[in-house]
Amino acid sequence: MIELKKNPSKGRLIAVEGLDGSGKSTQIYLLKRWLELEGYKVFFTEWNSSVLVKKATKKGKASQLLTPTTFSLIHCTDFADRFERQVWPLLCAGYIVLADRYCFTAFARDAVRGCDPNWVRTLYSFATLPDITFFFNVSTEVAINRILEGRPTLKYHEAGMDLGLSTDPYESFRIFQGRINQAYEKMVAEFDFTVIDASQAVNIQQQFVRKIVVEKIDLARFRWKVRNSL
């Protein structure tokens, strides 16, 4: 298996992973706001947000034209563009970079979709290992209920409907996301994930997240320096 290199920069990289509906995006947003309000240099990036491939991804999904391989390649292109233009430069500049999903999403999803795991990892071999990776562990039942609270239906690819697991999108979601969760669990020890019980109250989870960040990162190094006025 390809190993990710440790972060050699003066910045620190924090990633969150978990199923759709695990609450990871809420937690990293709360962490971001807290760090900003405390006066630290912070940058945020999220999965599938590169302007370079965003239109192509949207069009491919809408037309249901993406094979597991093209899906994987498009997401890796998105990741590589953001890593080269945003993540790595800001890490070198001494920022705390927060990533809503990292390459581990690809390691889990793409393998479940049928891509060779070694091939997928080779694609992302340029990536830096996060200093902290939070894995928000939650059951598929809780995840699906949370998603449906905000919208009436599941998205086609979110439910894994492209894999033909079931004609029922809800059952397909349970199977697809269940397999992804198993893939995540296999990576916990390998990549030293910090596992959080995502069924707990939002504030309880956030307290734990902040505690880990304070323990593992010397935050004082990342505080904005205020120049004294004459």
Euclidean distance between termini CA atoms:
57 Å
CATH class of the largest domain: Alpha Beta
Chain oligomer state: single chain
CATH architecture of the largest domain: 3-Layer(aba) Sandwich
CATH H-level name of the largest domain... which superfamily? P-loop containing nucleotide triphosphate hydrolases
Determine the number of helices (DSSP H or I, runs of at least 4 residues): 8
Query: Which overall shape is indicated by the principal axes computed on the Cα atoms?
Result: globular
Count of beta strands: 7
Helix content: 40-55%
Largest sheet: 5 strands, parallel
Q: How many structurally independent domains?
A: 2
Q: What proportion of the residues form beta strands (DSSP E)?
A: 5-15%
Spatial strand arrangement across the major sheet: 3-4-2-6-7
* pLDDT averaged over residues: 92
Query: How are helices and strands ordered from N to C?
Result: EEHEHHEHHEEHHEH
CATH topology annotation of the largest domain: Rossmann fold
Layout of strands and helices, then pairs:
Elements: E1 5-6, E2 12-18, H1 24-37, E3 42-46, H2 51-63, H3 68-92, E4 96-100, H4 103-112, H5 117-123, E5 128-129, E6 132-137, H6 140-150, H7 169-187, E7 194-197, H8 202-216
Q: What does this protein look like?
A:
With 230 residues, the chain is an alpha/beta fold. The chain has 2 domains: 83 residues, 3-Layer(aba) Sandwich (Rossmann fold), CATH 3.40.50; 85 residues, Rossmann fold (3-Layer(aba) Sandwich). The protein is 50% helix and 13% strand. The protein has 8 helices and 7 strands. The strands form 2 sheets. It has a 5-stranded parallel beta sheet with strand order 3-4-2-6-7, with helices on both faces. It has a two-stranded parallel sheet with strand order 1-5. α1 packs across α8. The longest helix is centred in the middle third of the chain and has 25 residues.
